[in-house]
C-alpha cells in the first residue's frame, strides 16, 4: 500500500448496520509545512482529561516553537456540553493557522 504524506484511506465498518453502497470521501486538511510563527489553536471540548492533554501539548509546542502563538479555547468559551457552536468554530478557523483538538476521556 502506497500513501502520500497527506492522504490516508480509512474504511469505517459498523457491525450493527449493513454497509452503504454509497461511499463518500473527505480529503484530509493539508498540514502546514512549518509551525514557526504560526497561530496554533488548542481546542478542548470539555471532556475529562482533554485539558491535561492540551496542557502537555502546549508546553511541548512552547519549548520547541518559541515564536508560535498559542490560542487556548477552553470550557468557558464552549456553548454547551455537546460541542461548539458553528459560530465558534468559524472564529477558531479565522483566528488560527491550525488547531489541535482534544476530546479527552
Walk me through this protein's architecture:
With 105 residues, this protein is α/β, with parallel strands linked by helices. The chain has a domain at 39-102. Helix content is 24%, strand content 15%. The chain has a 3-stranded parallel beta sheet, with helices on both faces. The protein is globular and about 50 Å long. The two termini are 32 Å apart. The model has no long low-confidence stretch (mean pLDDT 79).
Order of helices and strands: EHEHE
What amount of the residues lies in strands?
Answer: 15-25%
What's the helical proportion of residues? 10-25%
| Unreliable stretches covering 5 or more consecutive residues | none
Helix and strand composition category:
alpha/beta
Q: Rough shape?
A: globular
Q: What's the helix and strand layout?
A:
Layout (H helix, E strand, L loop, with lengths): L38 E6 L5 H15 L4 E5 L12 H10 L2 E5 L3
Parallel strand pairs: 1-2, 1-3
Concise account of the structure shown:
This protein has 105 residues and is of the alpha/beta class.
Keywords:
3 strands; 3-stranded parallel β-sheet; 105 residues
